[in-house]
Design goal:
The protein has 13 helices and twelve strands. By secondary structure, the protein is of the alpha/beta class.
Length: 396
């Protein structure tokens, strides 16, 4: 299946607005120029997932391949940067090849290649970015540099467009993952204003650290999410942190310390050892196996911890949305997979729609990178082949 071609000036069937653009601006125009329905190859390698995807017109995911390094980092309780870079090097070529193959896309069908340039682990970012640059150089394709956080926001925008119910602006975006907990105002034409962010740990990091402390595997969010409904969320009363200064900032370190104190005050070593043993014996124990080594009081602790994280996220996000008079809310990033967070957002009956991405687009993927690149392509916002990876690249 090659890309559909349209003569210039014909209405575009996908409804994303007449794009008057030669996708390869520096090539000599053909006598009767044609434009592609734009296909972008996205490449993401900012942390511990090597991902590639082909997305058409910023809204149709033709392929999305993610190679997870779960098996590499699981036993260390967190991502080991050197191992992550090595795994990206191993995975990048087959992952990109698979994304092109599954979407029946040849490199010459592409309008551009988009790669994550930050924030993230520099050694990891460099693998995807350098590979993208090499492909662009070899094929004369434009390179588009994408901020990973903007990618998470576009995971939601992509699906909403696809569903025919585009996100309305101004939108309040809650980006909540292992590396970020940020509130942004999203304005038309994808301009961003930072409203608040975590002053210490990211929410996903809090899930991961609490999981590690209790002998659960990395990443901690999915297993805590599955176990929490089996406990009482009001059993352990955690206090809500009052923020001096910007009331839209988050803090999770106090909560993490409170969990540590609770663990120290209760004799939990035997059950923690049992879970660590399970992790050593089996690569990926099932949920039932985790449940079997988690007594009721620990389930209560997990439920209460998750409840406190959700309250911290939703209360501040709702306050931010009110401040900007938001017409919609976007929640994205790995923690946006959390079933408890989704249920709480639903039952809060907020006076605007709350958009969550489907689980496959919540955690790191490259479809969101290709989607975020689409408006940049429309604007001609290309990066040079000297574009640098930036560990702490800010969105706004
Ligand atoms: O977006 P992501 O894949 O990578 C980063 O950009 O960080 O997010 C990974 C984070 C991890 O901290 C993981 O524990 C958390 O998202 N996470 C969850 C859930 N699934 C993943 N946290 C809570 N509940 C979940 N279901
Ligand atoms: Zn992410």
């Amino acid at each position: 299946m090659g890309p559909a071609r349209l003569a210039l000036g014909e209405p575009r069937p996908s409804g994303s607005g007449g794009l008057q653009l030669n996708p390869r601006p520096w090539t000599t125009p053909a006598p009767y120029p044609t434009i592609n329905i734009v296909r972008i190859l996205g490449i993401e390698s900012s942390c511990d997932e090597t991902a590639a995807a082909v997305v058409e017109d910023g809204e149709t995911v033709l392929s999305s391949i993610v190679a997870s390094q779960f098996g590499t980092h699981g036993k260390y309780g967190g991502v080991v940067p050197e191992l992550a870079s090595r795994e990206h090097l191993r995975a990048i070529v087959p992952v990109v090849r698979e994304a092109l193959g599954r979407s029946a896309t040849r490199l010459e069908d592409l309008a551009a290649i988009a790669a994550t340039v930050g924030p993230g682990l520099v050694g990891s970012l460099l693998v995807g970015l350098t590979y993208a640059k090499a492909l662009c150089f070899a094929r004369g394709l434009p390179l588009i540099a994408v901020n990973h956080v903007e990618g998470h926001i576009h995971a939601v925008i992509l699906e909403a467009r696809r569903a025919g119910a585009p996100v309305e602006f101004p939108a309040l975006a809650l980006v909540v993952s292992g590396g970020h907990t940020h509130l942004f105002e999203v304005l038309p034409e994808f301009r961003y204003r930072l409203l608040g962010k975590t002053r210490d740990d990211a929410a996903g990091e809090a899930f991961d650290k609490v999981a590690k402390l209790l002998g659960f595997p990395y990443p901690g969010g999915p297993v805590i999410d599955r176990l929490a409904p089996h406990g009482n969320p009001r059993a352990v009363p955690f206090t809500f942190a009052k923020m001096k200064g910007n009331a839209l900032d988050f803090s999770f370190s106090g909560l993490k310390t409170a969990v540590l104190r609770w663990v120290q005050a209760h004799d939990m070593q035997a059950e923690i050892d049992a879970r660590r043993a399970l992790l050593r014996e089996r690569l990926q124990p099932s949920f039932e196996e985790w449940l079997a080594v988690t007594p009721p009081r620990t389930l209560d602790l997990l439920a209460s911890f998750q409840h406190a994280v959700i309250a911290e996220l939703l209360i501040r996000a709702a306050a931010a949305a009110e401040r900007i008079d938001a017409r919609s809310m976007i929640a994205s990033g790995g923690v946006a997979c959390n079933a408890g967070l989704r249920a709480a957002a639903r039952s809060a009956r907020l006076p605007y729609p709350v958009h969550f991405p489907s689980p496959g687009l919540s955690t790191d993927n490259a479809a969101m990178i290709a989607a975020a690149a689409f408006p940049k392509l429309e604007r001609g916002d290309f990066a040079g082949l000297d574009a640098a990876a930036e560990a702490s690249l800010a969105l706004a």
